[in-house]
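Exercise: predict the fold of this chain.
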Amino acid sequence: MDQQQQKIEHLQHNAAVANALHDSTTEALSYIVIASEQISNKSTSIQSDLYHHIQENALKALAGTRDAIRTLSADTESDTPDVYPARTLTENNVSRLLHEEQTSLINLGFRGDVAYQGTFGHAPSKKSMAITALLIKELFANILRHADPNLPYTIFMIITDEHIIIHESNTSASQQTNFIFPHSGYGIHHFRQQIENIGGTLHTNQEDNNWLFYTKIPY
């Protein structure tokens, strides 16, 4: 029993570290990559070389971070379903997180509508709020990496008596940048599994360049 408990604690620790890396590091590095790309396009040749150097190093750090996330997460999904990110949501900070993420996109020239309405019918579970926190950051990060900054995106979050509902839509960029973001272990497939495991649903649809996302998370 002691060995089993130690194994569980070890897996939970690894999963918590993976969540913290994803929550605090990957989005910031993605932001640096995009920002340096935008600035380099408006700079002199010498400045442009410097910004490309910053971009290359940020991409290397991002790839290494995501390798670490995948390694830490490899043994945790089936064994420790109840693990949480370093920063989870509460009933009081949902709108603040949405505002922070929207502001980051505004600073890079992205425009969109972000709305939040409803009140919690009862105290939400820590697990549901943790999944929602990571999912919100993933949705904004995906807009940053894949959406056309010249066209508006939408994120609507609705709280009902029993569920957290999120609608997201954007137009994918028709022209790819000259860099490719490494994939993380926290893509939409990961969230679909986590949400379905607690009785929720997640659907996506892409027609031409239009991306649509919908999820319903019980809390």
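Check your answer against the key: Residues 159 and 183 are 30 Å apart (CA to CA).
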